[in-house]
Every structure is written in C-alpha cells, then in structure tokens.
C-alpha cells in the first residue's frame, strides 16, 4: 500500500480541513437555496392568500392570481381557464377567465359568460388536465401528441405546465403556464402551483358562485321591484277620478307633498275619500315599499285605542300578551289616523309625544322604542272650533297640519259625477262578473239631481247596487236605489241631437248649474255669500262657477 504519510502530516490535515470547509459551504449554500426557495414559496402562498381573501369578485380573483404567478415564476404566459357547463351541469369545455402574456403589464380579465370555450374537454394539454384531473409538465411540447398549437398565436411554445383546479374532487378549471424555452419549468414550479391550486380553486369557485348569487339576487330584486310596482298599480287607490277644479287642486297638492316626510292633515266630509288620498300619498312616497297602517280613531273606545296605537306589554292585565301597536307596525312606513278629531285628549297627548320624540312607549311598559313613522291624519270636524271648545290640543293640531289638504264634497264636483259612476260600473262589473252596462240618460239625470250627503262612498254603494240588480241594457234610475228628490223648480230637457253621453251630461250640467245659481242669486238679492250657503257650496266655489258659466250677477 502507498505510504499515506503520518497522520499528523500538516499538508494532509489542511487538505482535509479544506474539503470539510467546502462541504460545509456547499451544505450551507444548499440550505440557503432551499430556505430562499421556501421563503419564495411562502411569500407567494401568503400573497395569493391575501389576494384571494381581499375580493369576492370572480374576475378580480382570477386576474390577481395570474399576476402573482407571473411575477413569482416569470413564465412567458400564464392563464386560468374555467370549466363551462350547460344548463344540466355537463362540462362543455374550458373558457379563458384571465391571462397575461410576455408583453402584458397586467393580467387581462375576460367575461366568462360571454366567451366561447377555447378547448373542449380532453382537447390539448389543458383539456387533458381537466379531463384527467392530473397535472402535466412538458419540456418540449411540440414533441407531445397531446399538444394542440393555438391558431393565431406567435409564441413558439416549448414548455408547458398545467395543473387542475379541484373543488371537492370536481375540476372547476386549470392553471396553464407556457414558455418558448425548453424545460423552463421544474418540479419545484409544479410543487409550488400545487400548493396554491386548491386555494385558488376554492376562491375562484366561491367568487363564481357569489357572482351567480349576486346576479340572481339582482334579477330577483328587479323582479321584486317589477312585481311591487305591478301590485302597487293594482292595489293603488283607483277612485281618484275627476277633473273638477276643486278636486284637481287637491290632487296637485298630493303630488307636491307625497314624496316628503311632512305630516299631512286631510279635511273633508265623511265619504269624500280621505283614506284613499292617504294611501295615494303613501304610494307616491319613498316609503311605498314599507307598511301603510290605517286606524279609525272614532271606532274604538279610549282604552282600546291607546293599546291599538301604542301597543301593550304582557301582564298589564290577566291573560294579556305583549302586542305591538300601530306606530310600531308602521315603522318605516305611513300611519293614517282617520277621524283624529274624535280622539280623547289624553290619547292626543301621547300621540304628540311620539311625534316630538320619535319614540313610543307601550301601555304598561317603561322602555321607549324608536319609531320612524310618517303621519297622515284626517277629520271631518272643524279642528279650530274643537280647539276653542277645549276638545283638541292646539300643539298637536300644528304638528299635524304641516300640510293641510281639503277634499271637496261630491256636491261641489258635479262634473265628476258621471265619470266616477262609469268608473265604478267598470270596477264592480269586473268584480262581480256582471256585464258592463252604461248609464241611461235618465240615470245620469238622477245622479246629477241627487244631493249626495254620503259623498263618493254613497255613490260607490249606489253604483254597486245598480251593477248587481240591473237587468236591462242600461243602468236605470230605479237600479240606483236613490231617494226621490223633491222638485227643485228647475227643469232641464235633454237635447235629442247629442248621441255622446259625456257631451249630453256636460251640457245638462252647465244648464242646470247656471239656472240654479241664477235662482239662488235672485233669492239672495245678489249676496254671493248667502247664495253659496243656500246652494250648499263654498263662496269660493260659487265665484269660480259664476266666472266659468258666465252668470250675470
């Protein structure tokens, strides 16, 4: 054996130490490289995790993921394809969701629903990966029979790395990397993509489902709005018919104040349609999709009215359960207090407190509840006179009458009588399945001659009766069930040459009004106030009619 020299030969010891040093340096270099590789992997995983958790938008998730992979692995191109399915859930192919090429600064995001599949399932490397759910890495793609060059692309693809995106063992897409350099992708690239693929797949699927749910919610919201609008149109007050100046003036005021939060006080005789106007105000307001609650203050005794308005706590009396009042039920919407002039003073004080503090306290409770209610009130009483008599609170009156809207009685709307009657004939004929019979001339004359103390409500009931009992081709006076009026001393003959009912009624109405006004003025010796009182109309209405009809006074 060759002589290796003494073991303590300095040259040998130095050489051995150098070898150990080099080995340690290589080990440290390998460890550093592996450490840096792990740091890069963890950094990418963290960045991908942050990006995926920052948005539920499908395009944003896919585009940001492509950018991060492109920046970390530096392929010439990176893309994410999503599996498209037909209506029955069968996979049809791969649709490009996001991609970035060598010359792109950022990823381009595509609208998946508008894109056509780039690969069928099983077609090309991406299609094979989607079908087999296994990753494929190629160093010389052109030599692989599975590779299908994309038409119109200028890139000479040599290297490919494609991984499936799986969600609960179901492929939802693929990540595809390509490069013109042979063997550009290493096992570590595949390992790194495999680490983030599941997170990307879940995030992309969640974002896709969220987008689908958002679209469905938007579609449902649109459908809901359409249905609400249709329902509102069907359920909206349909008796707002009339062209008389007094009525049109009231409707114009409704249109001005409806879309505000102002309290409205509606005055007018019983049966003039105060609740219908209140519902119209609600339907035209921003609160139309919330609750409209109506309560008649004159229909309940004071104790029951308080419980109905403000609610009641459980245990106030034996067997009493907690119950929300109308203020709570109307929260966010509109509360209509009909015949508020009949409300007891103690209840008036509690209503005033709710309006001032926007809080309601149930009967028997101590805790106040916040409420947001728009109040519309109505009365047939003269509240100014009620205040003087001590029966109505002045402070509540001014809270209620931010806007005052007066509805004229039907006797001041003679030109609206026939149109209203025809409207009710149409409504009740459809409701009861009866033929829609027109008014005869004698029936129209009977309507015009009647005083209508019950106003529109009385007319509505009379027409409903006529629809139910009429047997002839037209509605006759006997069908209306009206009391026979005493002769007024004014006789108007219907002209035979007019065939149109509207024209005939208009002419008859003008003639009758003119003669009645002339007679009233003559009896009152020209005093317009006395004449208006005798006719049962306001002085303002009389002055308007004198001017319109050209009556010499």
Kindly state the percentage of residues in helix: 40-55%
CATH architecture of the largest domain: 2-Layer Sandwich
Beta-strand portion reads 5-15%
Main β-sheet: number of strands, strand sense, barrel status?
7 strands, antiparallel
Q: Give the CATH H-level superfamily of the largest domain.
A: GAF domain
Topology-level CATH name of the largest domain: Beta-Lactamase
- Structural class determined from secondary elements: alpha/beta
Number of DSSP E strands: 14
Radius of gyration from the CA trace?
Answer: 43 Å
Task: State the shape.
Answer: elongated
Please indicate the count of domains: 3
Please write the CATH class name of the largest domain: Alpha Beta
Low-confidence stretches: 232-236
Measured between the Cα atoms of the first and last residue, the distance is 153 Å
Average pLDDT, all residues: 82
Number of helices: 18
Task: Name the descriptors.
553 residues; alpha/beta; Beta-Lactamase; Rossmann fold; Helicase, Ruva Protein, domain 3; seven-stranded antiparallel beta sheet; five-stranded parallel beta sheet; 18 helices; 14 strands; 14% strand; elongated
Structure, described:
- The protein is an alpha/beta fold and 553 residues long.
- The protein folds into three domains: 34-211, Beta-Lactamase, CATH 3.30.450.40; 245-407, 3-Layer(aba) Sandwich (Rossmann fold), CATH 3.40.50.300; 411-549, Helicase, Ruva Protein, domain 3, CATH 1.10.8.
- Helices cover 48% and strands 14% of the residues.
- The chain is built from 18 helices and 14 strands.
- The chain has helices at residues 10-53, 58-73, 124-132, 187-235, 245-257, 274-283, 302-310, 326-329, 345-357, 383-388, 394-400, 417-432, 441-449, 455-469, 477-480, 501-523, 528-535, 539-549, and strands at residues 77-85, 91-100, 108-109, 119-120, 136-138, 159-167, 170-179, 264-267, 292-296, 334-338, 359-361, 368-370, 374-379, 403-406.
- The strands form three sheets. Strands 1, 2, 3, 4, 5, 6 and 7 form a seven-stranded antiparallel sheet that branches.
């Amino acid at each position: 054996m060759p002589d290796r020299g003494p073991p303590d030969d300095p040259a040998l010891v130095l050489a051995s130490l150098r070898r150990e040093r080099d080995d340690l340096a290589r080990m440290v270099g390998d460890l550093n490289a592996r450490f840096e590789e792990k740091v890069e992997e963890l950094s990418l995983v963290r960045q991908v995790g942050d990006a995926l958790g920052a948005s539920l938008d499908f395009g944003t998730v896919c585009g940001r993921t492509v950018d991060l992979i492109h920046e970390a692995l530096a392929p010439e191109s990176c893309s994410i394809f999503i599996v498209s399915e037909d209506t029955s859930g069968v996979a049809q192919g791969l649709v490009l969701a996001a991609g970035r090429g060598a010359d792109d600064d950022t990823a381009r995001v595509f609208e998946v629903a508008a894109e056509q599949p780039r690969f069928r399932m099983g077609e090309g490397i991406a299609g094979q990966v989607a079908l087999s759910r296994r990753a494929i890495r190629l160093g010389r793609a052109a030599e692989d029979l599975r590779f299908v060059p994309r038409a119109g692309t200028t890139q000479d693809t040599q290297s490919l790395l494609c991984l499936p995106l799986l969600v609960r063992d179901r492929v939802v897409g693929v990540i595809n990397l390509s490069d013109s350099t042979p063997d550009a992708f290493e096992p570590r690239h595949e390992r790194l993509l495999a680490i983030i693929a599941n997170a990307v797949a879940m995030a992309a699927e969640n974002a896709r489902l969220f987008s689908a749910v958002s679209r469905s919610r938007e579609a449902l919201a649109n459908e809901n709005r359409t249905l609400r609008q249709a329902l509102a149109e069907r359920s909206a007050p349909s008796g707002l018919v009339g062209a008389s100046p007094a009525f049109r003036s009231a409707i114009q005021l409704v249109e001005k104040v409806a879309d505000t939060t102002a309290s409205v006080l509606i005055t007018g005789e019983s049966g003039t349609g105060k609740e219908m106007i209140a519902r119209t105000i609600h339907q035209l307001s921003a609160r139309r999709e919330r609750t409209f609650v109506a309560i008649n203050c004159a229909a309940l005794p004071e104790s029951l009215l308080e419980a109905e308005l403000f609610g009641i706590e459980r245990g106030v009396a034996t067997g009493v359960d907690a119950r929300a009042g109308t203020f709570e039920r109307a929260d966010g919407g509109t509360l209509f207090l009909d015949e508020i002039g009949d409300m007891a003073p103690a209840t008036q004080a509690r209503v005033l407190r709710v309006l001032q503090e926007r809080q309601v306290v149930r009967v028997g409770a101590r805790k106040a509840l916040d409420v947001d209610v728009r109040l519309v009130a109505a009365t047939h009483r003269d509240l100014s006179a009620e205040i003087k008599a001590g029966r109505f609170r002045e402070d509540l009156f001014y809270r209620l009458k931010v806007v005052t809207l007066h509805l004229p009685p039907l006797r001041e709307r003679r030109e609206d009588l026939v149109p209203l009657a025809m409207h009710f004939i149409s409504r009740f004929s459809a409701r009861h399945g009866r033929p829609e019979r027109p008014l005869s001339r004698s029936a129209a004359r009977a309507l015009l001659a009647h005083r209508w103390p019950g106003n529109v409500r009385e007319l509505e009931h009379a027409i409903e009766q006529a629809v139910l009992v009429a047997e002839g081709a037209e509605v006759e006076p006997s069908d209306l069930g009206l009391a026979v009026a005493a002769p007024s001393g004014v006789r108007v003959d219907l002209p035979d040459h007019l065939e149109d009912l509207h024209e005939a009624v208009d002419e008859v109405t003008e003639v009758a009004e003119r003669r009645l006004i002339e007679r009233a003025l003559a009896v009152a010796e020209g005093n317009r106030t006395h004449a208006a009182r005798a006719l049962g109309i306001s002085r303002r209405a009389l002055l308007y009619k004198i001017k319109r009809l050209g009556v010499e006074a």
